[in-house]
Request: fold
Amino acid sequence: PQLTIDAHVAQVASYKADGDLALDAAKAYAVLDKMRHTQLAVVPDEFRPLSSVDSRGQLVTMGAFLLSEIRDALNAYRDTVDCCIIKGASCPRAAKAYDDDAYVSLETLRAEIQAKDDVNVYKLSGRALKHGVRERWSHANPGFMQIDDGLIVDDEGYVTHVRGEPIDEERIYRVASFKSLERETDGAIIAGELKAHPERMPGEDDGVQCHALLVGHWARRLWERIYALADADGDGRLSAEEFATLDEDGSGRINRR
Reply:
């Protein structure tokens, strides 16, 4: 007998939520409420003042900051990537000019990057990277490419350096981005190469949720700073005396300062 399998994709969001489960979910996420306006990351001076205004038509500082952080997060804990490029319609997207002393919070992250967006790793030749980014800068459009701080471009808009090294048009680079980098309507050069070499595309389930990636990266960085401050003698271990410098009231917990 011949086996026939029928399948369809259902949009879960279109179903009415179960009341009890929705309440349980709200309770579980409540732990994040205090993080909404808590500083998550230190913003280096070279990215200030932060701005995501007109990210579909110009390079913006919020884009450079977030993309550089995405690159560093991947290199620290997951894939090794050479650079990060993301369409301005996807990141950053809040179209906001921030105060000079503004910090990045969970609320900021949610405003600039949608929760649904995953970071994927594509493989692009140096030629596609050099010319393809410039192609998307010809006019304001959703595919206008934001770049990380390790990509250097010349006065004509061509990428000349990747992470401090001259770009090699024959080399294959590992490029972090959101899905749909291959969309032809945004630019023919990058899309054409990916269409000709589908093996350079990420797998369907290869992406990592961007919010989780960045928050995890920033949390790890914070703990490393705390540990470094407490480890006074630099031996890689915390003695009772060293921990006491963090536990001022003897409660066994790190006191907030």
The mean pLDDT is 91. The longest strand covers residues 118-125. The beta strands are 83-87, 118-125, 145-147, 151-153, 159-162, 165-166, 172-178, 208-209. The chain is about 30% helix and 15% strand.
